[in-house]
Design a protein that fits this description.
Oligomer: single chain
Number of helices: 8
Number of strands: 6
């Protein structure tokens, strides 16, 4: 995958729409957006507006190289409560805490973040909230074709469940289903109707 960030590299505080920041149940941003300095300002501003309205903010760590660049800042975002929900894969979370142990990293993020959802490829995912731990099974697939978009689709499914008031188990199951569908095709946009697929799987 060749990443092209396009217009988002110009994102700045003036682009933040207060009504949308305050109106969205959860605002989600990519760790990649921590590269442009003005985007940082926009994200912090959005978080303030969201939290003032009783809303939440989520982020994905994006990739291990991104974590290496901004480890201290990402930890500060979590520990300060600027970010409420974090998505990461097992490589990213181990990079964040500079450990080879997934268990150590999971124990650490449990203390630093209100909710963390960690994907583990064929091992499924683990969601932690305080002392609560929810283990999610990976969706069974016929053939692995292309993993591009798997993390984004997991987050999309999870956040759909979360913003509609479902349990963490249901959120993880919907995320796992969405990710499992997209990795069986080329490209990050699923060809199936995700709502229909989730209904057929008994998740909605």
């Amino acid at each position: 995958m060749n990443t092209y960030l396009g217009a988002c590299v110009e994102l700045g505080p003036e682009d933040v729409e207060a009504d949308k920041a305050a109106g969205a149940k959860v605002t989600y941003f990519e760790g990649y957006l921590w590269d442009p300095p003005r985007a940082k300002e926009a994200i912090r501003q959005t978080a303030k507006l969201a939290h003032a309205a009783g809303r939440e903010v989520s982020m994905t760590l994006s990739d291990s190289f991104c974590v290496d660049r901004y480890r201290d800042e990402f930890l500060e975002l979590m520990r300060s409560g600027t970010v409420d929900i974090v998505f990461a894969n097992s490589h990213e979370i181990k990079s964040l805490y500079q450990t080879a142990s997934f268990e150590e990293a999971l124990a650490a993020i449990r203390k630093d973040c209100r909710i963390a959802a960690i994907t583990r490829s064929e091992k499924g995912s683990v969601i932690v909230r305080g002392d609560e731990t929810v283990t999610i099974q990976a969706t069974r697939i016929k053939e692995l074709v292309d993993t591009t978009g798997a993390g984004d689709l997991y987050a999309a499914g999870f956040l759909y469940g979360y913003t509609t008031g479902r349990s963490l188990k249901d959120c993880g199951d919907v995320g796992s289903l969405a990710a499992g569908l997209v990795i069986q095709q080329i490209g990050p946009r699923p060809r199936q109707n995700l709502r229909r697929e989730a209904e057929q799987a008994g998740l909605l």
